[in-house]
Amino acid sequence: MDTLSLKFRKLKSSDKWVSIFAAVITFLTYASVYAFRKPFTVGSYNHASLIFGLPYKDALIISQVLGYMLSKFYGIKLISELKNLGRGKLILLLVGLSWLSLLLFAITPAPYNVVFLFTNAFPLGMIWGIIFTFVEGRRATDFIGASLAVSFIFSSGFVKSVAEYLKVNYAVTDWWIPFLTGLVFIIPLIVFVFLLEQIPPPSKADIDSRITRLPMNKPERKKFFAEFRYGLVVLIILYVFLTVFRDIRDNFAADIWRELGLGNEPSVFTATEIPITILVLVMIAAMILIRNNRRALVVTHFIIVAGFAVAGISSWMFIHHQLSPFLWMTLVGLGLYMGYIPFNCIIFERLIATFKKGGNVGFLMYVSDSFGYLGSVCVIISKSLYSNKLPWATAYSHGVMYLSVLGVAGTFIALRYFNKKYRREFTANAETQNIPVFDNELMLNIKTANA
């Protein structure tokens, strides 16, 4: 008995260290990838000409977001059908193509170099899905996925600080900042991708808890979506809201800080994102303690509701001069990421595990992302064309405030739908299997479904 107990403790310890290793490596890998994505946003490009009536920087952002959007639509097929072989090489190939685009952006005169932000974004848009396939379908996926997801909160601010440092201390021009920032991170990225491929596959206990995750062909994708269509449509709409406002904050953070009088402080980008990263990581990683997938799905909806509330209330206080600019940017970021991060690591993972349906998170995530970036493109173009004189800080604070009301209502609608569907399916399964109504476990699950 003592020998068996010792083996069990070793197994648990091994699982724990695999989870920690996977969390650290996925965090560092995706953080390094961000160095090829966001550094261009620190540039002001003040002397560049308008492009089709748009400010040059707005045109750059639109070009990149268009690349992400089309990448996500293409990724619905690529990521959902992805096999396990050669994933590390694929990551490096995609990043290499993206980095080459940044070199072409630097050496091609404006405005013709705008197209290279599109070619920079298209390969990068598929990397999150590839990385997530290494950690999906595990009992610790909530913890590992949280680490992966919050990496872009921290890294977005960190790589901008690195880019701003290069700009201020080495007089790097706006056009060369993206390529040289990528150069700083290229060696670490290669190392992290190698370590990423050393992550062991899910254990038998993982599979028993979260079911096996398999590639999905087109008929399987259609069948899965049709079965949950109403709840998924609501979740996708919510995700569009969150993506739009998270993306505006991410892309125009430098402009917002300049309007708020803090544009010449490189550390400000990291100062707001570090506490957000820590708080969201702790909150989301704690979901690993909830073993019941059904209960975790419900709790995730309430986290999203809380995120919308934090973002909305902090914006209302900022508009009415009850909150400092720095605290507002921190709290609105915290609220948006409380809503945004669960989509990237928990809600679809627990949805699949709750209903025991074959599939993978990549499919659902890329459907959501494709429409999210489509929404970002539309908002950025509309703002640039019709209200360009309105400061970003003003437009953003008011937009987030109204968003929060819709977000809270929509999240409760989605929760109600999944509650009802679970209750119907569980009752049908119980009747099919002739489970007696006095079965204690059955009654506990029914209470959970009605919670």
Instruction: Count every beta strand, where a strand is a DSSP E run of 2 or more residues.
Output: 0
N-to-C order of helices and strands: HHHHHHHHHHHHHHHHHH
In the CATH hierarchy, the architecture is Up-down Bundle
The name of the CATH topology is: Growth Hormone, Chain: A
Level-1 CATH class name: Mainly Alpha
What Rg, in angstroms, do the CA atoms define? Answer: 22 Å
SSE map:
Layout: H1 2-33, H2 56-80, H3 87-107, H4 115-124, H5 127-132, H6 141-170, H7 177-196, H8 204-210, H9 218-227, H10 229-251, H11 253-259, H12 268-285, H13 293-319, H14 325-345, H15 347-355, H16 361-386, H17 392-432, H18 440-450
Task: Provide an overview of this structure.
The chain is mainly α. The protein has one domain: Growth Hormone, Chain: A (Up-down Bundle), CATH 1.20.1250. It contains 18 helices and no strands. The longest helix is centred in the last third of the chain and has 41 residues, at 392-432. The chain is globular. Residues 4-13 and 433-451 have low confidence and may be disordered.
